[in-house]
């Protein structure tokens, strides 16, 4: 169990494209001292800079442009339970190890699926139209961390993210806490590709570069591949160093996820006229986790009133954005056209 727990983080992150890319880009971050909440610092206004000559004075006026988003720490767990009759039925040494392997595989699969669905769909897992609300356990009412449709919203200036109102402005009147969003009107491949180029450029504004993670639903992914083929641009677009089926957009991998929600419709239900393309800059999105509770396993315990014993797999952490304007979404994509 201890040996298995040491590899579980890699198994989870290597099974999910989004988390694999975060870890690859060093945005899967270990934290030693948790504090009350996770802090994601960022600058919303630059300091003063100007030309000067010889003995001219230099403006040293203080600038307030540093802030932070705060995200609550969340907990997630799975369990491994083995009854005594199962132990006796698998009493040989190798049979017992095989049984434990099957049980741990079940726990791992449960964690992978919940990470994927809760991060993308939020409480859409329970109510299809609740994709901007954090997943809430129907068993105990506990919540997971903020889902992607809230962090990179279809209504960028509405609501609050990381304890900061999304319509916040700096001293120059710039809305610094709103993500980029474009509603698609494309009716052909060329227009669709143009929309993607425009959103990418909007996300590139300011310091920090272009988005480097692109995530879509299946229909939008297939539309993009068809658009590339139509322009003879498909050759060599796959990123061979990414262990997921993918094509590339400006050299960065694009892949799809079966749990990708419908941003425009605000639901987990997909529609041919409401595809979604998400653009994320891993410099400004991170998952932070407790260094002491990163998929750890507890000892097996046998309750007094049960002929079985159980161990828990535990994870503490949260996900959040810092420069929200560096991320974007193209929603309402018509995925039905063919030229």
List the helices and strands and how they pair.
Elements: H1 2-15, H2 17-24, E1 28-31, E2 37-43, E3 66-72, E4 74-83, H3 84-89, H4 93-121, H5 148-151, E5 160-161, E6 164-165, E7 180-183, H6 189-204, E8 213-216, H7 218-230, E9 247-249, E10 252-256, E11 275-280, E12 285-297, E13 308-321, E14 328-333
Parallel strand pairs: 1-12, 7-14, 8-10
Antiparallel strand pairs: 2-3, 4-13, 5-6, 8-11, 9-10, 11-14, 12-13
Low-confidence stretches: none
Biggest pleated sheet: 6 strands, mixed
Helix-strand string: HHEEEEHHHEEEHEHEEEEEE
Strand content: 25-35%
Radius of gyration, taken over Cα atoms and rounded to an integer in Å: 23 Å
Structural class: alpha+beta
Average residue pLDDT: 89
Approximate helicity band: 25-40%
Distance between the termini: 54 Å
Shape, principal axes of CA atoms: globular
- Strand order, sheet with most strands: 7-14-11-8-10-9
How many distinct helices?
A: 7
Task: Compute the number of strand runs.
Answer: 14
Give the tally of structural domains: 1
Task: Indicate the CATH topology.
Answer: phage-related protein like fold
CATH architecture: Alpha-Beta Complex
Keywords for this structure?
339 residues, alpha+beta, phage-related protein like fold, 6-stranded mixed β-sheet, 4-stranded mixed β-sheet, 7 helices
